[in-house]
Amino acid sequence: xxxxxxxxxxxxxxxxxxxxxxxxxxxxxxxxxxxxxxxxxxxxxxxxxxxxxxxxxxxxxxxxxxxxxxxxxxxxxxxxxxxxxxxxxxxxxxxxxxxxxxxxxxxxxxxxxxxxxxxxxxxxxxxxxxxxxxxxxxxxxxxxxxxxxxxxxxxxxxxxxxxxxxxxxxxxxxxxxxxxxxxxxxxxxxxxxxxxxxxxxxxxxxxxxxxxxxxxxxxxxxxxxxxxxxxxxxxxxxxxxxxx
Amino acid sequence: xxxxxxxxxxxxxxxxxxxxxxxxxxxxxxxxxxxxxxxxxxxxxxxxxxxxxxxxxxxxxxxxxxxxxxxxxxxxxxxxxxxxxxxxxxxxxxxxxxxxxxxxxxxxxxxxxxxxxxxxxxxxxxxxxxxxxxxxxxxxxxxxxxxxxxxxxxxxxxxxxxxxxxxxxxxxxxxxxxxxxxxxxxxxxxxxxxxxxxxxxxxxxxxxxxxxxxxxxxxxxxxxxxxxxxxxxxxxxxxxxxxxxxxxxxxxxxxxxxxxxxx
Lengths: 244, 263
Known about the structure:
The complex is a heterodimer.
Chain A: E1 3-12, E2 15-25, E3 30-34, H1 41-48, E4 56-61, E5 64-65, H2 71-75, E6 78-81, H3 93-103, H4 109-120, H5 135-147, E7 153-157, H6 165-181, E8 185-189, H7 193-199, E9 202-207, E10 210-215, H8 217-223, H9 229-238
Parallel strand pairs in A: 3-8, 3-9, 6-7, 7-8
Antiparallel strand pairs in A: 1-2, 1-4, 4-5, 9-10
Helix pairs in contact in A: 3-4, 4-5
Chain B: H1 3-18, H2 21-47, H3 55-85, H4 89-94, H5 99-129, H6 139-165, H7 170-183, H8 195-201, H9 205-219, H10 224-255
Helix pairs in contact in B: 2-7, 3-5, 3-6, 3-7, 6-7, 6-9, 6-10, 9-10
């Protein structure tokens, strides 16, 4: 599915969290959404998921405006994972996955749960309560939930935040592998520049609610005369003037 | 003991009160409601102690019916609060579930939770006090239906508040039903209330439900018109609750609170 964002704005009490951004994520591509804290990434993702109503502008998913059509048919093909949202702690991993499989209308959900549990290594704690899991295990369960419906559009908000390097690497490998085997468009918000360099086809840099640059990682590094994406990010984040 | 430590910890709780109006409201709300409720009950018994020939039976039946209302409303709120507490709220609202489906699921589940809580209590009253709520006969089902619709409505209104104001509205969830207790004339006839309060009370289904309950138990007569009136009033409030819920949801989308509720 293709995502088109056109002149999107969102203000809270006349302060713009997102200020006239436009971009396109082509079908089956992975785009990184980067920027300092409070730059409008989460609000932008919230608007694309229908959680936040834009002040103006359009969000088209496969040419359908999410705010003008019955958004539920689109939401069935999308999903989201973030370490800042969790699944009910008193329910087992399997119960949580079953509930979301049902909510997303997944056929043969037992088969799908087995498949994704095996892929993400959840089998050993599938019947354990979600609240009893380590943060690495919770993260994998959250990822499993976000893939339960085999989404065509996946929003990932800092998917490896607070993970140790080993599990972080496992998650990155899994996302990379999953993408190579499935038709999926991914919008990834992350502060881990190495992760972005590895997973993303191109990158959008945001600051103070605006897009200040975009392109492939190599293009951005070259344009800003830096040696890597982290340096480029720092230059943009600390600059007082916006880059055109 | 160090004074600055005691002061520091006290300050933490005082700031919490200062920063949250629902918490301030909560502090003076309960004593006021208790005074009003027990004031009317005392007034009734001091004026007309011979009114009930079977005071225990009527008061316990009223308590069971009131608890049914309380449980149905609280069950509704609890299910929603649990989504907030477990930080599952965002997951739920990005799933392809319509608001009407959320309302329907909560409404259906609330009856199960309410029944689990109430049926044993109602059965317990039979051997312990010789009081059976089932003495109300077939109208009991209609009275419970009206109470359930109204309980769910209160749940909907509080849930709307939770969406609009966030978890700090939680205290209102617990307080909402006690606010209605004095007005609902659960334990005493409506005549005990001042006239101006009677006008407000009659706009609630509770007065009609509990007046009819007393009429059935004391006079052995059933007035179905009053029962249907109570159901109609409850249904009207339910419609209002649904509208308020939709408005709150849309308001939360505009304010962006759905994305970080519970934080």
